[in-house]
Amino acid sequence: MRNDTSASVEQPRPADPGPVLTSGNHACAEGALAAGCRFFGGYPITPSSEIAELMSKRLPLVEGTFVQLEDELASIMACLGASFAGVKSMTATSGPGLSLMAESIGLGVMLEVPVVIVTVMRGGPSTGQPTNASQSDVYQVRYGSHGDYEIIVLSPGSVQEMYALTIRAFNLAEMYRTPVILAADGILGQMMEPLTLQTEIERVQRKLPRVMPSDYRPYAVADEDLVPPMALAGTDYDFYVTGLTHDDMGNPCMDPGSAEKLIRRLCTKIRRARPLINDWEAYRMEDAKLAVVAYGINARGVREAIERLRREGHPIGMVRLKSLWPFPDELMGQLGQQVQKVIVTEMNNGMLIREVERFRHTFEVTGITVPTPLPLTPSTLYKYLCQEV
Questions:
Q1: For 279-294, how does the pLDDT look when each residue is reduced to its tens digit (9 = 90+)?
Q2: Which CATH number fits domain 8-205: 3.90.76.10, 3.40.50.970, 2.30.30.240, 3.40.50.2000?
Q3: Which of 39, 233, 347, 379 is deepest in the core (most CB within 10 A)?
Q4: Beta strand segments in the chain, E
């Protein structure tokens, strides 16, 4: 985990060594506990319910709190409140529940509250396919709330990454004082794989005020990361909480100049940190002239298809995105210096491909975008890719 020097790091006691056979949802819960999560507020929804189930059993054992709320709106609001009290907090849901959380995600951005939101994606729109998978929340996790804002979204591709990226989500949330979303899918949440628990874990803690209470300005920044220190509710530090645009003291402020200053800072602190946030894995890209861009569960079949095409003499590789937002523009720039064509594959009707298409001036862009509840098999991907090479 790449660290901001202004954030403190705590080393917890070593975990029991793995590997253990477990599901992606349980790995997510274990990662949250390892990261220091001590509050979970949620409402059960398929296919993410096992996360809440395990947290309800495990949190009391570590002096944490589990609350099942009446709905998803209350769930995320409880998490925002717990975070203001200084407790690392998480909720878990799926597409329909994430829709209900949309307004409060924007509130979390405006108030700059660290919180982790897990969406285990299923098919939609509406009720869709509750027990199946999808990658159809890609737009919702980025643009679900209104207004100008930036968000951090991570995309695991295995049970092990469900664990590791949950830990990273908490660290990024604390580091940049913002909601962070982990976007998995129904198959990854339910499937079983070996999980190795980490024995050494970095826990990033949010910046606390470095001035006396009388001098504290809740949204004033002094560091290059543009992240203001965060006082905790119930301490000697007073602060005003509002979803309105506000000045450095947190007081509502409607004049255009103050609004522009605030919104630009909220967006810039994430955009500026993009090289530290963005993460991806390159596979067989050393001499590739064609690149497949994939993410999540759907990337798993790409490797086998690529190996088959390699044996046939085609210079093709893959870039698997571990973070979706902010979009890795720097990666696209690197691909533009090497490849002639980028092929995006995703389990939806075409979402992330539209970001890649912004770089059409540097390479050709095509897609294998199928709104399917099942990841594309290696043989299916091979047939599609044969039409592109």
A1: 999 999 999 999 999 9
A2: 3.40.50.970
A3: 347
A4: 8-10, 20-23, 39-42, 65-68, 89-93, 115-121, 152-154, 179-185, 192-195, 203-205, 280-283, 290-295, 316-321, 323-325, 341-346, 364-369
Please state the rounded mean pLDDT for residues 110-128. 96
136-171 pLDDT, tens digit each: 999 999 999 999 999 999 999 999 999 999 999 999
Nearest to 322 by CA among 348, 366, 283, 380: 283
Amino acid identity at 113: V
Three-state DSSP state, 109: helix
Give the C-alpha separation, 341 to 300, whole Å.
Answer: 20
Question: Over 70: is that where the pLDDT of 172 sits?
Answer: yes
Distance of CA 113 to the CA centre of its chain: 15
Which of 154, 187, 131 is CA-nearest to residue 375? 187
